[in-house]
Amino acid sequence: xxxxxxxxxxxxxxxxxxxxxxxxxxxxxxxxxxxxxxxxxxxxxxxxxxxxxxxxxxxxxxxxxxxxxxxxxxxxxxxxxxxxxxxxxxxxxxxxxxxxxxxxxxxxxxxxxxxxxxxxxxxxxxxxxxxxxxxxxxxxxxxxxxxxxxxxxxxxxxxxxxxx
Length: 164
Ligand SMILES: [Zn+2]
Description:
By secondary structure, this protein is of the alpha+beta class. The protein has a single domain, classed as HIT-like (HIT family, subunit A, 2-Layer Sandwich). The protein is 35% helix and 16% strand. The protein has 4 helices and 5 strands, in the order βββαββααα. The protein has helices at residues 67-88, 125-134, 136-151, 155-163; strands at 30-33, 37-41, 51-55, 92-97, 113-118. The chain has a 5-stranded antiparallel β-sheet. Strand 1 and strand 2 (37-41) form a beta hairpin. The relative contact order is 0.20. The chain binds zinc ion.
């Protein structure tokens, strides 16, 4: 209920900015972070397992990404879909980028990709959304379910080794 009432999870400033040493954070719904990219569960999901994949650096536009950051984001998109398939068995995904407030970005100052799992039976979209949004336990359960797999990822470490 504290989630619904807005008394928990309120962070100062950008929701994507965490201290450098942090690798995950339950309060911030941060499933993964290295020096290039990070993955959060969306606090206001369109479906269970709705992820946000962002550069670790506070950058607004895709043209501001380094090659290493762009590669890390795409590698993380792939890994996220593997993990979501393993745990939630969706029938499909919507993924995309809202660039700028005019395009509907809620956090326009920090670039992020949305990854939304979809199921054949989720046609009644508003019901699904209303249900997910009204039950904070969904988010905690999904966070705890996905966290070990994200923390076990080795792909970004491989990317780091290549860079060095
Ligand atoms: Zn930021």
